[in-house]
Amino acid sequence: MRFRTALLLCGLAASVTLAGCSSVPSSTPIIGEKVATNEIFTSGYGPVEDHGYALPAVPIQRVDPKYHRQIVDYKTSEKPGTIVVNTPTRFLYFVLPGGKAVRYGIGVGKQGFAWEGEAYVAWKQEWPMWHPPEEMAVRRPEIAKYVKEGMQPGLTNPLGARALYLFNNKGQDTLFRLHGTPEWGSIGTAASSGCIRLMNQDIIDLYARVRPGKGARVVVQQ
C-alpha cells in the first residue's frame, strides 16, 4: 500500500457520532438486492432538509452530465461494497452485484497532494467537525484557529454533510477522507488538499450504502 503526502491533508474530526437516518433515500439497490438497472439521477440534486440543515439545490445543469450520479456497467474483480476511486477520470465507483456500480463525480487532490493505495472505511460521521492539520494552517493562517477547536458542522464546513474516514490495514488513520463539499463547481477538477470530495447530495447517498469495517475496502487508482 502506498500513500503520498498523507499528513498534509484533511485532518481529524473531534468526535464520532452514530450514523443516523438521512432524508435522502438511497436511489439504487445496496448489497444483497437485485441487480440494478443503468440509470442517471440528474433529478437527485434538489434542496434537502437533513438533520436540521437546509442543503441548497445543486445547479446540476451546470455540472457535466458525466459527473451526475448514475448506475453504470462496471467490470471489476472487486467485491460488491468496495469503493474504487479513479483519480484520472474523476470518478468514484461503489461496486454493486451483477457487473454494475454506482458512479459519482468527484474532486481530487491538487498535484503534489494526490495519493493512491488501499484502505478501508473505519467509521463515518454525519455533519462532521473539521480539524485542519497544522501544515495546512501554516499555508492558510486564517484557518489556524480551527486546528485545535475545530470548525463546527454547517453548510460552509469543508467536509460537508458526511465524511468517511479511511484507515490502513494496520488500523492507523491515513488522514484521508471521502467527504461532501458545498463547492459543487470543484467536481471534476483537482482542487482539494488531497481528500476526495463529492457533492453533498452524493455523499449522503454513498454514506447510506457503506457499512464501516475492514470489509468496506477502498482502492484509489492513479
UniProtKB/TrEMBL annotation:
The keyword Cell wall biogenesis/degradation applies. Residues 81-221 form the L,D-TPase catalytic domain. Belongs to the YkuD family. Keywords: Cell shape, Cell wall biogenesis/degradation, Glycosyltransferase, Hydrolase, Lipoprotein, Peptidoglycan synthesis, Signal, Transferase. The keyword Cell cycle does not apply. Pfam families: YkuD. GO terms for biological process: cell wall organization; peptidoglycan-protein cross-linking; regulation of cell shape. Residues 1-19 form the signal peptide. GO terms for cellular component: extracellular region. Coiled coil: none annotated. One of its GO terms (molecular function) is peptidoglycan L,D-transpeptidase activity. InterPro entries: LD-transpeptidase, LD_TPept_cat_dom, Transpep_catalytic_dom. This is Lipoprotein-anchoring transpeptidase ErfK/SrfK. The active site is at H179, C195. PANTHER family: L,D-TRANSPEPTIDASE, L,D-TRANSPEPTIDASE ERFK_SRFK-RELATED. Pathway: Cell wall biogenesis; peptidoglycan biosynthesis.
